[in-house]
Specification:
Elements (H helix, E strand, L loop, with lengths): L3 E3 L1 H9 L9 E4 H17 L5 H17 L1 E3 L5 H11 L3 H13 L2 E3 L3 H7 L5 E2 L1 H7 L3
Parallel strand pairs: 1-2, 1-4, 2-3, 4-5
Helix pairs in contact: 1-2, 2-3, 4-5
Length: 137
Amino acid sequence: MIMYFYDASSIVNLIKRGLIKPFSNGISLDLALYESLNAIWKEYQLLKKLDKDSASLFVDIIEAVFNVVRVLSIRGLEKEIFNLASKEGLTTYDASYLYIALKNRFILVTDDEKLKNKASKYVKVVTSSELASKYGI
């Protein structure tokens, strides 16, 4: 079975497209929950792109997604992730997604261009748009 490993950028963008079906075969990091919530907060509070009701709805959907996807942690992998981040010039956040995808042979789903470019040397990477087109959206 193909396992998609979602970073926060892909989670937020798929939710904005109204596409939640791919999450049934999904895995993510606990970190992605915080990053996804922060992205919605930023669009609501700082950028004023979302009204309060829309932001609240997105938060509800994020909560539902994280009740469906399997959530992993980087506990015990800190040194490996730090070393990968240093080697590739990534943040430890991005290196966490890459390391877990690499270790488990997951397909990484990201809309972060830098992460996509670095990760594609190691694992298969798709964007949320590419995944959405697979689901006919």
